[in-house]
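cron nightly-structures :: item 1 of 1
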Amino acid sequence: MSNWLLVVYRDWLRHIVHRLRQELLKQRYLHIDETHVQVLKESGRKNTSDSYMWVYCSIKGAQNPIRYFEYQPGRGGKYPEAFLKGYEGYIHTDAYSGYNGLSEVKRCLCYTHLRRAFVDALPKDIHTPQASKPAEAILRLNKLFDIEAELEGLSPEQKKKERLIREKPLLEAFWAWAEKSAASELPKSKLSKAFYYALNNRQEFFNYLEDGHCSISNSFAENCIRPFVIGRKNWLFAGSPKGADTSAGIYTLVETAKANGLAPMKYLKYILADMPGSAFLEHPEYLDDYLPWNPMVKELCQ
C-alpha cells in the first residue's frame, strides 16, 4: 500500500470507517469470522507469528449492509469481547471457544460446520459399517438445509413459524439420536468429536429458532472475508501493524461499497474529492453524507 494512501486513510477515511462501525453495532444480527494474516514489525513478536483479520458483517438482506474488517495481533476472545462491548443481539459464529465470554449476546452456531465435522468422520470406503453413523448424521442435517431452501423468501415471521413446525422436531430427533449414538464411540475418534461438537453446543445450535432473521449457517461471513483471503495469496503479508490496520479500513470501505451496489473506486474517489471541504471534525454528523446508502452517494457512485 502506498505511503500516500496510508496518509489519506489516517487523515480522512478512518473517520468513515469508525462511523460504519457505530452503525454496524446498532444492528441486531451479525456474522463473524476471522482468518490469519502475517504482519511484520509487531512489537515483541516474530515476523512468522500469525495475526488475524476479523470480519463483522450484517446479515444477508440487511437494509444497510456493512462489512467491517479489523486487524488484531491474535485470535483470543478478548478481541470480539472488546469489539462487541455493550452489544446485545444475535451473532452467527463457529464453535470457537473465544466467543464464550460474550455473555450479552445470543450465539447461533453454524450447521455447515457441524455437517462438515461428520463429513470428515466418513471413512474412505463409505460402504463399510463404520460409515453408517456419519452418513446418517449428514442425511439428517441435509433435510434441515433442504427445508431452509424452501423457506427462502419468506418473511422473518413466517420463517420462524415454519421452522418451529418443520425443523424443530427434526432437531430434537437428531440430538436424541446423537446422544444415544455417541455412547458407543471411541473418545478420540473423528466421529466421537463430531458428536461432542453437537452435544456440547446444543443450545447454541437451537438459538436460530428464536428469530426468523437468524441463519442456520455462518457461510455468509466466510464469503465476506473471502476477498481478503484471495488478496492475501498475492501480497502475502502486511509490512507493519499500521499497514495491517489501514488494509482493514480499505477492505471495510471497498467491501461495504460493493455490498451496497456501489462501484468501489467511484466511492473512494468521491470521498477523497469531497471530504476536504467538509467540516466533519466540528460536525461529526456530516460523516453521514459519505455513508454508502446516502442517496447522493448512491446516485454518484453506482
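cron nightly-structures :: done
The two ends are 25 Å apart (CA to CA).
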